[in-house]
Specification:
Number of strands: 9
Number of domains: 1
Distance between the termini: 21 Å
Largest sheet: 5 strands, antiparallel
Number of helices: 3
Strand order of the largest sheet: 3-2-1-4-7
CATH superfamily: Nucleic acid-binding proteins
Order of helices and strands: HEEHEHEEEEEE
Shape: globular
Strand content: 35-45%
Structural class: mainly beta
CATH class: Mainly Beta
Radius of gyration: 14 Å
CATH topology: OB fold (Dihydrolipoamide Acetyltransferase, E2P)
Length: 112
């Protein structure tokens, strides 16, 4: 288990639901997808990189909703800026399973 964080620290995370609109393979990538995610009117679309290419086909992701950290500092990945992080569960075999809402919700909805 990692170090404990206070509730105040946890509240700093901005977790939102977004819909994956486009899945692209960055040039030269073996493991990464470049995702365009719609996070609703307040935030708009974001580009997010995810190392899930070996587990998911693009058609399995496009149109699906997922949970993202939207206030994560941007990070350069493959020479481009990733503007968030798509959340997934990693089991013992280290195969990511995306965290998705049980029913469709409005893009940009806050996860609590």
């Amino acid at each position: 288990m990692k170090d404990k964080v206070s509730f105040v620290e946890f509240q700093k995370l901005d977790l939102r639901v977004g819909t994956i609109k486009k899945v692209e393979i960055p040039e030269g990538s073996r493991t990464m997808y470049r995702l365009t995610v719609d996070l609703g009117e307040e935030i708009g679309e974001r580009t997010v990189f995810a190392g899930i290419k070996e587990m998911y086909e693009p058609n399995e992701l496009e149109g699906k909703q997922g949970v993202l950290v939207v206030n994560l500092e941007p990070k350069k990945i493959m020479g481009e800026e990733s503007q968030g992080m798509l959340l997934a569960v990693c089991e013992a075999d280290d195969q990511p399973v995306l965290i998705v809402p049980l029913k469709s919700v409005k893009n940009g909805s806050v996860v609590r």
